[in-house]
Design brief:
Blueprint lengths: L46 H10 L17 H6 L4 H6 L4
The structure holds zinc ion.
The site of zinc ion has 8 residues, from loops.
């Protein structure tokens, strides 16, 4: 089973993203390069802060050891991220 990255919406994380209460993975997202449990817990970087910085750099594939999917588009992927507040405020058509 794969999991979606809460930072960049990459849909194929191997482990569930780390929860606020601790536990979960120390996986590094191959797409945005966020390391769960380290960049958030140890460095105090929020998902949105990392996401914005990553988008600013051009939303490039981060992993050196793992190839990006052939049709991969970082910006489109990040834009596909479900927006909680927008979804609540507006009803789907
Ligand atoms: Zn990611």
């Amino acid at each position: 089973m794969s999991h979606s990255c809460p930072v960049c919406a990459y849909p194929k994380l191997k482990e569930p993203p780390r929860s606020a209460s601790g536990g979960g993975s120390y996986e590094i997202c191959p797409s945005c390069g966020f390391q769960f449990g380290v960049d958030d817990d140890d460095k105090g970087i929020t998902f949105s802060k990392w996401r914005n910085a990553w988008l600013k750099r051009g939303a490039l594939w981060s992993s050196l050891g793992q190839k990006a999917p052939a049709d991969w588009n970082g910006k489109a992927q990040a834009a596909s991220r479900p927006k909680k507040t927008a979804a609540k405020a507006k009803k789907a058509k």
